[in-house]
Design goal:
The protein is of the alpha/beta class. The chain is about 35% helix and about 25% strand. It has six helices and eleven strands. The strands form three sheets. It has a seven-stranded mixed beta sheet, sandwiched between helices. A two-stranded antiparallel sheet has the order 4-5.
Amino acid sequence: MSETFQYEVTLPSNGVKDNKKYPVLFALHGIGYNEKEMLSVFEGLKEDFILIGVRGNLTYEDGFAYYKLKEYGKPDRKLFDESMEMLQGFIETSLDKYPIDPNQIYLAGFSQGAILANSLALVFGDKISGIVSMNGYVPGFVIEEYSIESIDQLSVFLTDGEKDHIFRPEVGKKNYQFFKEKGASVKYKTYPTEHLIGNENKKDVTEWLLRRVDGIKKP
């Protein structure tokens, strides 16, 4: 495994069976948070998923970050590009280390983690089955300058908060339109919260992911 990131992994609590492959969720936290806080959002997946919480490699206040900001909504481009490259390598290496079903790879993120999940899905293309993107956006420079793959097989659950003063719901609506135009299957929901993940949001994204692995492909 790459030593670029510290991480926490949990295997399915029902036990890992020989020669069986499992869906995986890579969980990416927001700036100033850590992998444990992000994994706590997905406690309801422990029976069925391999869960991998990835800690940002940079320190930020009382937590960590994958890249620093020039200001909100404006990543330090050099650090962002480096983080994207490192995360791609980390994910690809993980596929060989754990009994992961290559047809059931999911990304989830909040804020900075959501921005990266969105961007990684565009770069990985059909290697990614779905993403949960909470209170984030798609950087313009990723759309304009990165090599973007087809995502017409991708399932996306976008969430945001109606009281979020960092990324207002207008950003979420723009995300929805972008992914729809790219051919992804998209669910979008706004919650009565600020820039955070509320209990209803946790419940909904957990149920959505479980439906994906149960073979229900509804948005």
